[in-house]
Specification:
Elements (H helix, E strand, L loop, with lengths): L2 H12 L26 H17 L3 H5 L2 E9 L3 E3 L1 H12 L6 E4 L5 E5 L3 E14 L2 E16 L2 E10 L2
Parallel strand pairs: 1-7
Antiparallel strand pairs: 1-2, 3-5, 4-5, 5-6, 6-7
Length: 164
């Protein structure tokens, strides 16, 4: 199964089984065609992602948590599933460490797909770095964020983090 199709299946499950529009299959290649998100959606989600991780890099826990819905489900391949309270506790512990960790989006990796009557799916790769034993230690991982449009603006309801 193509990784993007697999991510769409996971994202569909993550939003409670709601259907995600499937792109038509190209007769020439046998692959799904990817349509562009509606005008402005890519920029809105990219801006929300940037604001979330600016707060993350500044270790601003209240601001970071304002980007998540209270019914958050955070799936991570190496740690399992966490809810909002567990995620808040985990970020609080991470931000309390002496050595800061920084996140950067891998250039060119961001893809955004609309989710009808719900919000958007952000798929990408990001790099986390910290200094250990005097050297920069970095890891690059894949993620899916399911963004819900709420009265408070864009918030993440589901996270799938993998490739650790």
């Amino acid at each position: 199964m193509d990784i993007r199709v697999g991510l769409l299946v996971l994202a569909t499950l993550a939003v409670g089984g709601r259907a995600v529009a499937r792109a038509p299959i190209s007769e020439a290649t046998g692959e799904r065609a990817h349509s562009s998100p509606p005008p402005g959606l890519q920029d809105e989600i990219a801006a929300a992602d940037s604001a979330l991780f600016a707060a993350f890099n500044q270790r601003d826990l209240p601001k970071v948590m304002s980007f998540f819905t209270r019914d958050l489900e955070f799936y991570q391949d190496n740690e399992g599933v966490a809810n909002y309270a567990q995620t808040k506790r985990d970020f609080g512990q991470m931000f309390g460490q002496a050595v800061p960790i920084r996140r950067g989006l891998v250039p060119g990796s961001l893809e955004v797909f609309p989710i009808k009557n719900y919000g958007a799916m952000e798929v990408g790769r990001h790099r986390f770095c910290h200094v250990e034993a005097g050297k920069e230690d970095c890891g690059t991982f894949s993620f899916v964020h399911i963004w819900r449009r709420t009265d408070r603006g864009w918030q993440i309801a589901r996270v799938i983090s993998y490739g650790h």
